[in-house]
Amino acid sequence: MFLKEIEMQGFKSFADKTKVEFDRGVTAVVGPNGSGKSNITESLRWALGESSAKSLRGGKMPDVIFAGTENRKPLNYAQVTVILDNSDAFIKDAQEEIRIERHIYRNGDSDYLIDGKKVRLRDIHDLFMDTGLGRDSFSIISQGRVEEIFNSKPEERRSIFEEAAGVLKYKTRKKETQSKLTQTQDNLDRLDDIIYELETQIKPLERQAKTAKEFLVLETERKEKQLDLLVYQILHHKEALVKNQAEFEKVKQNLAAYYQERDLLETKNQTLKEKRHQLSRQMDQKQANLLEMTRLISDYERQIERIHLEVSQKTEKKQSTQKSLEQLSEQKASLKTELAQKEVDLEQLEEDLKQKNQEIKNVETELSRFATDPDHIIESLREDFVRLMQKEADTSNQLAVLKAEIDSRKQESESKTAEIRQLQADLEKAKDREQRESANFETAKTKVQELLKDYQKTAQLVQNLEATYAEQQEAMFQLLDDVKDKKARQSSLKSILKSHSNFYAGVRSVLQQADKIKGIVGAVSEHLTFDKKYQTALEIALGASSQNIIVEDEAAAKRSIDFLKKNRQGRATFLPLTTIKPRRLSESNQSLLTSSQGFLGLARDLVSFEPRLQTIFGNLLGVTAIFDTVGHANQAARQLRYQVRLVTLDGTEIRLGGSFSGGTSRQNNTTFIKPELDHLTQELALLEEKQVEQERTVEKTKQDLEVKKVDLLELREKGNQARLAEQKAEMEYQQSESHLQELVLLYTQLKQTNQADLNRDLEKDQALLQEKLYKIADDKEKLNQEIAQIKEDKDSIQQKTAALSQQLSSLQLSERDLANTQKFERTNLKRLAEELAELEQNEAGMMQLLDSQEEDLDEKRLPSLKQQLANAQARKTESDQELVRYRFELEDCEAQLEEVETNLLKTNQKNEEFIRQQTQLEAKRDHVSNQLRRFANNLAEDYQLSLDDAKQEAGPIENLEAAQAHLSQLEKQIKGLGPVNLDAIGQYDEVSERLHFLNSQKDDLVHAKELLLNTIHDMDDEVKARFKTTFEAIRDSFKTTFTQMFGGGSADLLLTEGDLLMTGVEISVQPPGKKIQSLNLMSGGEKALSALALLFAIIRVKTIPFVILDEVEAALDEANVKRFGDYLNRFDKSSQFIVVTHRKGTMSAADSIYGVTMQESGVSKIISVKLKEVEKIS
Q1: Crossing angle of helices 168-368 and 374-499, rounded to 10°
Q2: Which ranges constitute the DSSP H helices of 1102-1159?
């Protein structure tokens, strides 16, 4: 591929249509400064997609259009056409000649064309991606770009190598994939929100649906059983009512006879009770006297007993104290003797312990003289001996191997001749096999290509369906978001409507307490609805009246005002339905309005409200007209002589008298919540219908997609099998070819090495190893002698050391025993001292106790107390006798009274029984009557049946208790179900279906997310592999190119970190005769030549159709310019270089030259220059 032609018109200084044709090889573009040479390279960059005006030396993109001169007017557009020769199919799937066009106009519009067809800028970028061409590629290099290579950071410099590695398409695809991944995650998040909301609904709905189904079954059975019981109970209760009436009459007769007998018994009972009361009072008096005497006797006896006890206790205590005092004195003397003996023993132990410590020190000093252990020395020598043995074994092994090799070489020489003859036969067979496998491989390859075409066709269909599916999914998610947003707004509006937070404080407080105040209908704005387009006009028409409160009557208005005053909640205006009258326009004004242009209607007619509020809205809106525009409203106002209030849709108001009011409000508050809420509810219903329909559409597309994917999988499986067959054939072909090459190589090696193997000097190596073995044997003998000598001196040292060690252990044991004994005796001494102090303290206490005891016995009082006790006992006996007499009289009276009361009780029991029977019968009669009425009502209300009809439908009841228990059980089961929502069955089925669908959508998205993550991972791996391979190739090429261009020196490329996706590229250079230095310390020429070396190294690695160099050698001296020119000529003549230059050395290397000049000021022209005239250009 090469650049064939550039055609410009109106681009910068090329005002006229200018065509520049290029050939392969080196083309130089020359001309004076400012003539427009660089505009040629910039036109190419611009046509290939450059979108930065700054990089084209402009402020904004229209600056590239010819701006005019003193003699020419500016042009309104610019265009550049680039023609590329693609006959070598460098860009696959493109025509042999590619034509790129770009147009731009003064208004900023632009067009892009490929082969005459309009395309997007992105299409141009995609066409040249990873080809080495394009707007940011290194195929177009200016002088500034050369400096940028060295001045940029390592991370920024990486982009050049990525372009060369051909990974930009992977990075672009990765970015697109990450965008899709983000979009997929957003969709997942949205689905999770909806699924979470549905899951929170479905669990309660599932329970409610299950409960509803159970309820329907139980309720049907309950009604049937209840009907059977109702019929049975009605018939049974009618029979019970007749029987109850007969029993009631009999009980009334028994009650009359009872009342006569009761009166006689009550008279006798009263007389006996009075006598019993008198006897009881006398007995209580005697009982009190007797109790007092008993208490006095007990007191005397207790005093006498106490005096006897005190005398006995004091005598015993004195004797015990004297005995304890004698024992303490004896213990005290014993302790003092023992203390003295312990102090003597401790002094002796101290002397013994000091003596033992001195003996231990002496033994340790003597033992230290024999510290060195001969066993350690012997052990070290033995380790040396083992190492010598190991070395001897290794040397013997080497010697054996060498002998075997000598024998083997002799046998090998003899067998090679026969092996060569066998190889010649194998070579012929391998050639035949290689030809067969090659034919099989070609057949398998053809089959794979056919299947690949079918697969690509089906894959395109799947891709189209996936795109449609994604679009439909996105539409579905958008609907989900819209529903969610509108539901949030609906909830917010309902909250505002419920709390009345959009009203003034006074209005809000009255509305919030409406239930307590009574008679409150509501605010004006809460009781009307209208088309949304009239909202602004109606807000102005009502003004503050929208916050007026409608009440039932004047009393409600007064109560509300009293409430506001009492609670200091502010003010409010009230509109009683009983006092407000509607207002109307005159017929003439009404007629004029109707005929006026732009009249939309009276405000009253544009709103909807309850019929009973007709007077309220007639009063507030009956004389206000609504117009579409201010102009129409103004015309109507003049005709009406400003006698009617007019309001336009944008909120402009023409008031009575002709004043105008209008503008916008800074606040966006409104009291009209209900109209918006109604409109929002309608929108939500429509959106939810659309959402369900969209979900069905997505589901259908998904099914179609799955069918196509199955077809694609089948084709893929066939393709995989065919590819496996192809790979197998290829592998067999490669194996046969490899086997053939191995045989040829082996045959060649055998012929070359048949005589060379016998020339080795193995006998010399054998002699050296034998001498090494002799030396090792001598070293082993010396070590054995040294070990024997040390063993002879070892026994006497060991005996002395053992004796001293045993003596030291015995002394240390004795020293520990003495120390423990000393510690124990000191503890006993301290304990004895504490016991002696305690005995002395106890002795002093007992002495004090004996001194305090005195004779204080009071025996003189005993005779007097005994006499008083005898007198009290005599008086008690006399009181006992009188009490017995009164008791006999009382018992006789009690017996008579008991007999009377028994008879009275019996009669009362009869009375109670009769009354109880009467009450029971009356209650039973009322209960049965009530039950009959209730049963009849239930029959009529629940079943809409008469008794006769119910008898026919009801079933028989054999066991009433079992039937009632069954009914009770059914009712209990129904009650146990709790609240029942019968609509839940349908709601559950609907939500369950939606949840299943959304979960399948979620699974698809999760699968898509995994695929995207895997794709990103695969692309990262591919980028790493390509980048590493290309970097290493450029690195090797750069080392060579640098040396060639500088005539020596060295250079290298280094990665700044291990991560191949993020690493930057450092440049290390060492010009000839200099040390490695920082790039910043290099001269401009050295930087330029180094950068050019890097660019040429990249060009040698990465095939680039053509390279544009714009004054890149400007900083080089003449010698280096010549090197630059010579290096250009080193490239194959099929390569294409277009060089913008001023330098003679570069021009001399060119195959053809174009000159750019400005024959007309400000307008560039192209002229041809013959090669023989090149030397005249300076």
Answers
A1: 140
A2: 1118-1130, 1144-1148
CA dihedral 199, 204, 205, 208 (to 10 degrees): 160
pLDDT tens figures, 915-974: 777 777 777 777 777 777 777 777 777 777 777 777 777 777 777 778 778 778 887 887
* Other residues' Cβ atoms within 10 Å of the Cβ of residue 1066: 14
CA distance 1009 to 185: 7
Give the integer Cα–Cα distance in Å for 1132 and 1107: 13
Asked if 44 and 52 count as a contact pair (C-beta separation under 8 A), the reply is: no
Residues 6 or more apart whose CB falls under 8 angstroms from that of 676 comprise: 493, 532
Task: Determine the residue type at 977.
Answer: L
Q: Which of 368-382, 590-604, 758-772, 974-988 is the least confident region?
A: 368-382
pLDDT tens-digit readout, 1102-1157: 777 788 888 887 778 888 888 888 877 777 666 788 888 888 888 888 888 888 88
Cβ(279)–Cβ(897) under 8 Å? no
Q: How far is CA 587 from the centre of its chain?
A: 71
Contact call for residues 64 and 139 (beta carbons, < 8 A)? no
- Over the range 435-465, which residues count as b (16 or more CB within 10 Å of their CB) and which as e? eebeebbeebeebbeebeeebeebbeebeeb
Which DSSP helix (H) or strand (E) runs through 853? Answer: none
Please name which of 801, 1021, 1175, 850 lies closest in space to residue 1013, comparing C-alpha atoms: 1021
Specify the pLDDT at position 854. Answer: 47
pLDDT tens string 97-127: 899 999 998 888 889 898 888 888 778 777 7
Q: What is the DSSP string of 719-784?
A: HHHHHHHHHHHHHHHHHHHHHHHHHHHHHHHHHHHTTGGGG--HHHHHHHHHHHHHHHHHHHHHHH
168-368 and 984-1046 helices cross at what angle (nearest 10)? 80
Give me the pLDDT at residue 647, please. 94
pLDDT-derived band at 805, boundaries 50, 70, 90? low
DSSP 906-945: HHHHHHHHHHHHHHHHHHHHHHHHHHHHHHHHHHHHHH--
Which of 731, 957, 758, 1065 minimizes the C-alpha distance to 230?
A: 957
Task: Classify residue 35 by its DSSP letter.
Answer: S
740, amino acid identity: L
What does the angle CA 526 – CA 530 – CA 532 come to, to the nearest 5 degrees?
A: 110
**Tokens of residue 807, six digits:** 């003596």
Rounded percentage of the chain residues whose pLDDT exceeds 90: 6
The arithmetic mean of pLDDT across residues 899-928, rounded, is 75
CA 431 to each of CA 88, 421, 428, 445, 728: distance values in angstroms, whole numbers, following the listed order: 34, 16, 5, 21, 19
Residue 1052 pairs with which residues in a beta bridge? 1068
Three-state DSSP at 15 gives coil
Q: Dump pLDDT digits (tens) for 173-213.
A: 778 888 888 888 887 787 787 777 777 877 888 888 888 88
For residue 576, the cross-strand partners are: 551
pTM: 0.45
The pLDDT of residue 543 is above 60: yes
Identify the band that residue 366 occupies on the pLDDT scale cut at 50, 70 and 90: low
* Residue count (the chain): 1178
CA-based R_g, the chain, Å = 63
Strands of the sheet containing 574-576, edge to edge, are 520-523, 549-551, 574-576
How would you class 809 by CB atoms within 10 Å of its CB: exposed for 0-12, middle for 13-18, buried for 19 or more? exposed
Q: Tokens for 482, please give them.
A: 């819209």
Residues contacting 266, CB < 8 A, separation 6+: 904
**Tokens for 197?**
């909301």
DSSP H/E element including 1061? none
Strand partners, 28: 1139, 1153
Residue 809, token pair as written in the block: 């252990």
